[in-house]
Amino acid sequence: MTQRETIAAIATAAGAAGVGIVRVSGPGCRAIAATLLGRPPEPRHAHYLRFRDGDGEVIDDGLLIHFPAPQSYTGEDVLELQGHGSPLLLARLLRRCLDLGARPARPGEFTERAFLEGRLDLAQAEAVADLISAGSEAAVRAARRSLDGEFSRRVHAVVEGLTALRVWVEAALDFPEEEVDFLAAPELRRRLHDVAADLAALRAAAGRGQRLVDGLHVVIAGAPNAGKSSLLNALAGEDRAIVTDIAGTTRDVLRERVRVDGIELTLVDTAGLREAPDVVEQEGIRRARAELARADLVLAVLDDQAPVPELPLPAGVPVLWLHNKADLSGAAAHAERRPDGEHLWLSARTGEGLDALRQRLREAAGLGEGSEGAFSARARHVDALARADALLAQAAAQLHHGAGELAAEELRRAQDALGEITGTVDADALLGRIFGDFCIGK
Ligand SMILES: Nc1nc2c(ncn2[C@@H]2O[C@H](COP(=O)(O)OP(=O)(O)OP(=O)(O)O)[C@@H](O)[C@H]2O)c(=O)[nH]1
Ligand SMILES: [K+]
Ligand SMILES: [Mg+2]
Q: Which atom of ligand 1 has the smallest separation from the CA of 350?
């Protein structure tokens, strides 16, 4: 392997703070440390010193810690310089490291090196970024679990199952005289079924993990004046949307990032769905429909006193029916299961029934009962799992038709798709995209 360059960056957040850290990684760390310190550093020892520039002028005083490879974040030699958290001082300290032979790190380059050194797999490396940017306690815990390898372990378990299947099928192909018996064996069917079930469960869990990271996209829709904007305000805990008794008040799409019981939601208020007379409202309704098509969950708001309107809701999107203005209709806050989904009675005005709604939102975000152990995931992972799932189904069909060669190929491709998640297959093209999203210094 060619000698890597030594990289350096300010690792702490921009802006004034009590303490700031410049991080350095690569083969030059020891020499930089020795120059700053005036003698070789002791491993993992906090040296107190004055950082000086090339002319001997004092930049700052602080701590220097040298982490020799491989026991460091990146797996390479790492140097941490901790000074006062002044952006100007830290910039000078960084400059000094660059003068001593380091080059500025790209975003995510420290974590990329940790991946290349085998300290983390790809899913874990992505969890670092998700942990840093997590917007809720639940998202923090989920990212922590992925970083600990929870997600990767489950991927590996499915990969092992797939490998065993491949061995079986390849063995059958190697002994043509036995092939028919081998491929038709009930034991093979059963194993295929088990792997498919594990993969389906993992896919569902990863979908919940992705919603935890991205936040749930909840669209509020319904007839004019049903109380959609009032509901948004009630959930947000403040008056964000305009509420009046005039039908057609909301015309544009209003997107609010709100936190409900520790989960991040994007709540989308939309124009009331009706045959609108004027073009502005018509455009609002067109946008409302576009939002509906990409919702994770639709809150269909009904006025409990009015006849149930025809709502053009898209197929395949989960819908929760909300009978609003229960304070006027006199209905008690309660829930009913009906063929078209769950119905809740509530009042955006009095707040009655809102706790039940919050509970449903938690469940939709993957935080309901039985959700302990959620791990973070990304669209990239969910996509790879979906491809693996489809390939496995094809392999099953081909085995059914005795097409062993084709089945073996699909199983191999399914395994490759899963390998993309953890980075065990050649993932060069992916790396730039994944680590480019990081902040510098990570
Ligand atoms: N009594 C009572 N009035 C409500 C309730 N929710 C909304 N309202 C009233 O119903 C009227 C319409 O509320 P909005 O929140 O503007 O309804 P909307 O669905 O956003 O209406 P458009 O944006 O025009 O489609 C307002 O006068 C609200 O104060 C409720 O739970 N109880
Ligand atoms: K209104
Ligand atoms: Mg409105």
A: 31
**302-328: pLDDT as tens digits:** 999 999 888 888 888 899 999 999 999
What the block records as the tokens of 388 is 């693996």
Binding residues: 23, 80, 119, 225-230, 244-250, 269-272, 324-327, 347-349, 442
- Give the distance (Å) from ligand 2 centre to CA of residue 184: 64
- For ligand 1, atom 26, which residue shows the shortest CA distance? 245
Q: Which token pair is 336?
A: 């009913």
Tell me the pairing of strands 216-222 and 254-260. unpaired
Q: Residues 6 or more apart from 145 whose CB is under 8 A from it?
A: 151, 373, 374, 375, 376
Contacts of 72 (CB under 8 A, 6+ apart): 25, 78
CA distance 205 to 392: 18
- Does the beta carbon of 366 sit less than 6 angstroms from any atom of ligand 1? no
The reply to whether ligand 1 has any atom less than 6 angstroms from the CB of 233 is no
Distances (CA, A) of 95 to 9, 12, 19, 98, 137: 9, 16, 18, 5, 36
Rounded to 10 degrees, the C-alpha dihedral 267/142/108/217 comes to -20
Q: Mean pLDDT throughout 293-301? A: 92
Q: Which domains does the chain have, with CATH numbers?
A: 7-121 (3.30.1360.120), 133-211+376-423 (1.20.120.430), 216-364 (3.40.50.300)
Instruction: Determine whether the shortest distance from the Cβ of 272 to ligand 1 is under 6 A.
Output: yes
- Residue 302: count other Cβ atoms within 10 Å of its Cβ: 21
219, 230, 285, best to mutate for ligand 1 pocket (most atoms within 8 Å of CB):
230
Beta strands in 270-339 (DSSP E): 297-303, 319-324, 335-338
Residue 133 clears pLDDT 90, i.e. is over it:
no
**pLDDT mean over 35-40:** 97
First CA to last CA across the chain, in angstroms?
23
Range scoring the smallest mean pLDDT among 10-19, 58-67, 429-438: 429-438
